Amino acid sequence: MYKSLFFGLIFLLVGCSDKVSKQSIPQLNGYWEIKKVIFPDGNSKDYKVSTTIDFIQLEGMKGFRKKVQPQFDGTYDTSDDAELFVIKELDDVFQILYKTEFSEWSETLVNLHPNTFSVINEDGIRYNYQRYEPLKVDE
Description:
The chain is mainly beta. It is about 10% helix and about 50% strand. The protein has one helix at about 1-15; strands at about 30-40, 45, 55-60, 60-70, 75-80, 85-90, 95-100, 105-110, 115-120, 125-130. The protein has an eight-stranded antiparallel β-barrel with strand order 1-3-4-6-7-8-9-10. Strand 1 and strand 2 form a beta hairpin. The radius of gyration is 16 Å and the shape is globular. Residues about 5-15 have low confidence and may be disordered.
């Protein structure tokens, strides 16, 4: 019952948003920061500044995502941890299927533009991302 309600909600949200095309998927490559999280009950949380950002690297429909920390000198501090994923199209909806040594989960790609994208996870939480712009520090 809850699963069908969850997927019904996802299809409703996807139907009311911009359709993601297979040709737009490479736009996920790069550095992204979370700007807003919207919870199933309608509450939301805005993120003004993020200390970590996501780096996404795709090759075809496979890739990885890892957390990185931007440094003032323009470099990124990172670990060797990465979340591997594949993107699959199911009924005109793109699912990002993650798999790590410890867990598996999925997110539905709701919209994708050159500088923004949104996903909804299995708990109905929506994450709105914006392309990361490095801070410019005058010397």
